[in-house]
Amino acid sequence: MSKTKRLSTDFFIREVTVVAPDLLGKTLVRCFDDGTKQRFIITETEAYRGQDDKACHANKGKTARTEVMFRKGGLVYVYLIYGMYWLLNFVTGPENESSAVLIRGIEGISGPGRVGKALKLDKSFYGENLATSPKIWLEDTGLKLNYTTLPRVGINYAGEPWISKPWRFVADPL
Predict the structure, then answer these.
(1) What is the largest CA-CA distance in the chain?
(2) What are 146-162's pLDDT values in tens digits?
(3) Which domain holds residue 68?
(4) Number of domains into which the chain is organized
(5) Contact 169/147 with Cβ under 8 angstroms?
(6) The domain spanning residue 130 has which CATH number?
(7) How confident is the model over 61-105, as pLDDT tens digits?
(8) What sign results for the dihedral spanned by CA atoms 173, 101, 15, 150?
(9) Among residues 17, 2, 14, 41, which one has the least CA distance to residue 144?
């Protein structure tokens, strides 16, 4: 892997609704425990904008679960749902902004639970630094994808205007 292709921390220290669509077409690289590497093109993301966003986990403030979201962008935030699926998020923005992008789809795999399963995520990924990690990182191959914006999924509890925010970004078919 060429070091010049890996996304730096600076990529993530931007506003979450800018980072989320910019992740489409980026290559997610996963180095598994057996040493094999797989590359996946990111095809769907959702933005969660800090403590003001009623759908964002950080909305209630800093907790043991959300602490990493309050750090500087470029870190991994994973959490377990339904006791079986680890969901992958990338922290964005400056320290204390508490925003993150959920990875909802990668080429050939749709749904954040399926993404986590395919990547064999677990609790050990929490706080992983994407700029230096030997097991997960992102690369820019120059691929630019057209996309559609849609409302986020499964956040009815947040109420309006959060339900209708067009902060889900879905790449057109490759």
Answers:
(1) 46
(2) 999 999 999 999 999 99
(3) 3-171
(4) 1
(5) yes
(6) 3.10.300.10
(7) 888 888 999 999 999 999 999 989 999 999 999 999 999 999 999
(8) positive
(9) 41
